[in-house]
Amino acid sequence: MRRLRLLALSSLFLLAGCAGLAGDSARERALLPALRSAWPGVAADVQRGVNDGLDDGDLTAAASDALVASGDHLGASLSSTLEEAKTVTGAEWPVLHPWAARGVIDRVDDGEVGPGVAVSLNERILQFDAAIDALQGR
Amino acid sequence: MEEDLKEILNAFLDQLKTEIEDAGQDISVSWDELRMYTAERANHLSAIVNEPGFELAVRAERDAIALKAGIAAVNTADEAGQRWLGMIQGTLIVVAKVLALGLV
């Protein structure tokens, strides 16, 4: 009887754990469409930053090509499976993030956008970064 | 933010909530949190309506709100998701411009 009760309790804990995991997974999956939707805007900022780095001699052509490939990889992963998106964004986004920020600065420097618009562009990058953190379970 | 505009934002978010729930979706933050965040972003836009690149800012804020909400069906290939993004963007433009013009 006591063993049965122990078994029932263990099963309950296991079920509760699985439910928690399923909830996390659903939340992470729910982030993918929003990330996918925001990516073209963020990617444009990354591209701008990479072009600026290349123009200013801070990047070699090979390094610039590698960053563009990273961006393409990240973009494609957002239309893939949740696991693929987690793995790829976890690896690629930290590399691309500074270039997105640089792209926004370059837009302001060139007079294409005002400082308040830059705040909005940076807000999107901030939320994109937070969503990727959530996707990683951080 | 003026009371009238709060009402507009609330009406918009209530409509969005209804549509999202009817579609069997949900958001990853509370609706109150999203309400406050949207009001904050609309206020910011109202201060920059005359800056170059204002349209870029509106799209960026729309994306930021969708990311904050983690709206599951915001998908460029999804008709409902597109409509919700359009609703967010349209409301942000209206509220920001009305605030900027001091019409309330």
Question: What report would you give on this structure?
Answer:
The complex is a heterodimer of chains A (138) and B (104). Chain A is mostly helical and 138 residues long. Chain A has helices spanning 2-55, 61-77, 82-109, 115-135. Chain A has a single domain (31-135), classed as de novo design (two linked rop proteins). Helices cover 87% and strands 0% of the residues of chain A. In chain A, α1 (2-55) runs parallel beside α3. Chain A is globular. Chain B has one domain. In chain B, α2 runs antiparallel to α3 (54-69) and α2 (31-46) packs across α4. Classes of the chains: A mainly alpha (138), B mainly alpha (104). Chains A and B meet through α1 and α4 of A and α2 and α3 of B.
Q: Would you kindly provide a brief summary of this structure?
A:
With 138 residues, chain A is mainly alpha-helical. Chain A has four helices and no strands. Chain B has one domain.
- Poorly predicted runs of chain B: none
Q: Largest beta sheet of chain A, briefly?
A: none
Give the quaternary arrangement of the chains: heterodimer
The tally of domains of chain A stands at 1
Strand content of chain A: under 5%
Helical stretch tally of chain A? 4
CATH architectural arrangement of chain A: Up-down Bundle
Alpha carbon gap, first and last residue of chain B = 10 Å
Radius of gyration of chain A: 21 Å
Strand composition percent of chain B: under 5%
Please name the defining characteristics of this protein.
A: 138 residues, mainly alpha, 4 helices, B: 104 residues
List the helices and strands and how they pair.
The complex is a heterodimer of chains A (about 140) and B (about 100).
Chain A: H1 2-55, H2 61-77, H3 82-109, H4 115-135
Helix pairs in contact in A: 1-2, 1-3, 1-4, 2-3, 3-4
Chain B: H1 3-22, H2 31-46, H3 54-69, H4 79-101
